[in-house]
Amino acid sequence: MKSNAVNTSHLRAFIERIEKLEEEKRAIADDIKDVYAEAKGTGFDAKVMRKIVSIRRQDKSKRQEEEEILDLYLTALGME
Amino acid sequence: MKSNAVNTSHLRAFIERIEKLEEEKRAIADDIKDVYAEAKGTGFDAKVMRKIVSIRRQDKSKRQEEEEILDLYLTALGME
Amino acid sequence: MKSNAVNTSHLRAFIERIEKLEEEKRAIADDIKDVYAEAKGTGFDAKVMRKIVSIRRQDKSKRQEEEEILDLYLTALGME
Amino acid sequence: MKSNAVNTSHLRAFIERIEKLEEEKRAIADDIKDVYAEAKGTGFDAKVMRKIVSIRRQDKSKRQEEEEILDLYLTALGME
DNA sequence: TCAGATAAAATCGCGC
DNA sequence: GCGCGATTTTATCTGA
User: Fold this and answer.
1) Which of A68, B28, C59, C73 is deepest in the core (most CB within 10 A)?
2) What is the enclosing helix (H) or strand (E) of D30?
3) Nucleotide E6: nearest residue by CA–C1'?
4) Side-chain half-sphere of B22: how many Cα atoms within 13 Å?
5) What is the pLDDT of residues B36-67, one digit of tens each?
6) Whether A65 and B51 lie within 8 Å, measured CB to CB
7) pTM
């Protein structure tokens, strides 16, 4: 049986790893904001840029889904 | 100043409208499940069907986004 | 054996039924949002209202569970 | 006046920087999920862990707010 | 019945 | 400060 001390120390380690990663994530989100701000500063419209990014993201997602359904079809036809 | 009684009665009315709508929504979700079950009963693969529905939903959403970015472009060009 | 044409047409019919139902579901979800917005406009706090609805939903679920347990007891006692 | 080619190439560069950063962000989000999964595998409850992380985040935010208020006081008193 | 995937709801954070 | 989009958390569903 594990002692509580060990459990606590493991838990603490997990929590700290998560918090470190979340901080990195926040830093990257800030970087993204900075890029939008910089682009805006050189005359680009952030709203348009966000829409472009969003459409390209959808394109990628759609392509993935199409690959997935192809796999499903092949599986259904016993060709996998 | 409104009395608490009036407030309470208004709040109650809002809550009841919401709960009624949520029940309708749940009923429709059940209907959808029934359709999948019926389709499965006639030999169709529900997983494939869900993927088809999902892709068609993405198509529609993508079309909408493309219309929106076109509007953004036109606005940016002062052509609206 | 069914022809592919028949299969396709059946599949199409199922998909369309599902999409129609999903659209209805979305419409109701929009109605719910509208009610929250309307309530907000008359001074109620949407967050609080959502909490109330959620609690009442849990209560209802709890009551149903308790009734089911009661039924089990009655059945076990041969009193159903 | 900038040529369209230059504009396009600048825009493309901004978009690519954003997409790269978003991918890094997603990768980190995945890492976080992995840590939760690993913790779960050693017997910890992810839901509880999320609660802990959330509370600690609030605490941190609260502490920062209190420090800012203290700074305001000190500044108002000419003690900064 | 449970885990793993999917979808929905709620919350958060941003730009306007 | 409000709406809107993204993210996160919760709930539901399906297949093993």
Assistant:
1) B28
2) helix D4-41
3) B50
4) 14
5) 999 999 999 999 999 999 999 999 999 999 99
6) yes
7) 0.90
